[in-house]
Design brief:
By secondary structure, the chain is mostly helical. It has one domain: Up-down Bundle (de novo design (two linked rop proteins)), CATH 1.20.1440. The protein is about 70% helix and about 0% strand. The chain contains five helices and no strands. α1 (about 5-40) packs antiparallel against α5, α3 (about 80-95) packs antiparallel against α4 and α4 (about 100-125) runs antiparallel to α5 (about 130-165). The model has no long low-confidence stretch (mean pLDDT about 90). It comes from Aphidius gifuensis (Parasitoid wasp). It is an enzyme of class 1 (oxidoreductase). It is a multi-pass membrane protein. Belongs to the VKOR family.
């Protein structure tokens, strides 16, 4: 059996690796979106057909501010920039092994997966399959699984100490 510190190290490595993939996908999404805005003839590799197209998703009204933020807001930014911030933050927090960090990491992972469900529904409305988007959704699911596993390991000693106090 792997000692707890070894398990946490492996989970941290998995989390950081997932974040690197998420950062790469988010950067590519940002590159595609800004390239398409500058040159309408730009055709990215992720545009395979009419219904398998990343630019269809990125250039839709949901591609900035998740379709929820007003166009005149300073937060009306490409979703990919939110992804860059999210994956960067998760990568930093994931190497901290305190209980409060594990809780915050799990909350972020749950929120990102709620966003994933929303954006998946948007893709359905657009009648589109965005390979880059599906890639980030997969990364979000992996981050949730790893975050929950890390939370369980880190919270176990706290629960055990609490149980010992109740017995005395």
């Amino acid at each position: 059996m792997i000692p707890t510190s070894g398990k946490i190290h492996k989970l941290n490595t998995g989390l950081v690796t997932a974040c690197v993939v998420g950062l790469a996908l988010s950067y590519y999404a940002y590159y595609v979106e800004t390239s398409k805005e500058k040159d309408s003839n730009y055709e990215p590799l992720c545009d395979i057909s009419e219904h398998v197209s990343c630019t269809k998703a990125f250039m839709s009204k949901y591609g900035k501010g998740y379709g929820l933020i007003s166009e005149d807001s300073i937060f009306y930014l490409p979703n990919s920039l939110y992804g860059l911030g999210f994956y960067g933050l998760v990568a930093i927090i994931s190497v901290c092994n305190k209980y409060s960090h594990a809780v915050f990491l799990l909350i972020l992972a749950v929120l990102s997966n709620i966003g994933t469900v929303y954006l998946t529904w948007i893709l359905h409305l657009l009648n589109d399959i965005c390979i880059v988007c599906v890639g980030t959704y997969t990364v979000n699911a992996i981050i949730l699984i790893l975050s929950y596993s890390k939370y369980r390991i880190i919270s176990k000693p706290i629960i055990q100490r609490s149980a010992k106090r109740k017995r005395h």
